[in-house]
Each structure stands twice: as structure tokens, then as C-alpha cells.
Amino acid sequence: MSDLSLSLATQSAETDAILASVLEEQAQKGPDLRQTHPKSHGLVWGEFIVEDNIPESWLVGVFAKKRSYPIWVRLSNASAPEKRGKFKSDLEPDIHGLAIKLLEVEGEKVLDDEKYTQDFIFLSHPVFITRTLQQFAFIKLATVKIPAQKFDFEERNRLNEGLSFSPWHTLPEHEPLGVINLARKKIYLEAVKFRHQYTEQRLREPQPYSQILDEPDTNS
């Protein structure tokens, strides 16, 4: 059965079931961590420069005119925690992510939690997405510049954990399509809310030390 044949009620029920499973796993393995790509390799700042020779049919959204945007870029590993405090080694192959958050983006957004941002999410993939060179129409839309910088320090790491990236942080022109992305919209929002509420609760009402919750795993 294709996604298109599913009723809205069925889609909603399946999304809720996935969300419940996601939040349960998140509570067990790391409620203060991201639900997807929790292992960060760093958060860096840079510049997103829109090209000035984009074909007319691609002049939409943030690419409508030449300009530059300040950005935050998060590099990550997709592997979920094996248990609290223990991630899989980077030596084991996995999907890696690169999330770009454009700042100072004017205009109405699909979501209202961030008024001046536009997120673009990229993933590594083991296979090429087209079968022939003719199917691959490469069009350069922008240049990303990231200067050499220090990024492994407390304040930057705290910002890294506080930011959230979602394909739904977007102008309507770049709105994600399809049933899967509709499900991601709700799951991402609820997972972020759960993570932030957990962190805020621990600060607002401190709890006793618990080895299960706080002790880093030192076993290989």
C-alpha cells in the first residue's frame, strides 16, 4: 500500500505510534539529547552566499536575489546512543549529517518558533541518487564559507545543544513535501520540546545524584 492511499486518520495514528516509540527511547537513552543525530562533531559559524547567476526558474525563497546570510553549521553522526552516556565509535561506518541554519531571513515561515531562520539539512548516503549523468542536473545556488575557528569550548557546545534544526524551519517556497516529511514535522517538534523541557526541569528543580542517570559509561 502506498503512502498516497493512506487516510489522514491512518497517517496520524502511525505518526503518533512512531512518536511514542521515539520519546520512550529518548527517555531511556538520553532525554537531553537530540532524537536524531545526537552525536555532534562540532558547531561552526560561517557565511551562505547566494549566487548571482541562478537560472530564473530557481529564483525562489532565499535564492530569489543575490545576498549573503550568516549561518551556523552543525556536523553530526546519525547513530543513536547505545545506552546513556555511550555512543557508537566513529570508526564504525554510519550516516553523517550537515545542518545549515541561515540567520536574518525575512518573511513568513511555515513554523512560528523561529522567525528569522531557514534550515537546510544534508545527509551522507552510500549510493548515488541518479542512474545517469543526464539525470544529474547540477546547479550551483550558493557558496558556503566557514573560516578556521575554535569550536570545542563550553559556550559553543552549550549553544550547539540548544539549537534545533528542522526542514520545517523554512520559508513556504522551500516547504518539504510528502507524507514522511509531514510525520517528521510533528515528531521533530515534539522531540525538541521533550528535550528542552527535560533540561529546563533539571535546572528548575534539581534532583539528587543518580548513577543510572548521570554517571558516564567508562566500559568499552
Care to describe what's here?
With 220 residues, the protein is α+β, with helices and mostly antiparallel strands. The protein has one domain (7-203). 28% of the residues lie in helices and 19% in strands. The chain has helices spanning 8-29, 154-162, 179-204, 211-214, and strands at 39-50, 68-77, 96-103, 117-123, 142-145. A five-stranded antiparallel β-sheet has the order 4-3-2-1-5. It is globular, with a radius of gyration of 19 Å. The mean pLDDT is 79.
Structural class: alpha+beta
Rounded to an integer in angstroms, the radius of gyration calculated over CA atoms is 19 Å
Q: Strand-residue fraction?
A: 15-25%
Read across the widest sheet, the strand sequence of neighbours is 4-3-2-1-5
Question: Mean of the pLDDT scores?
Answer: 79
Question: What pattern of helices and strands is seen along the backbone?
Answer: HEEEEEHHH
How many beta-strand segments?
5
Helix content: 25-40%
Uncertain runs are none
H/I helix tally: 4
Alpha carbon gap, first and last residue: 43 Å
Give the assembly state of these chains: single chain
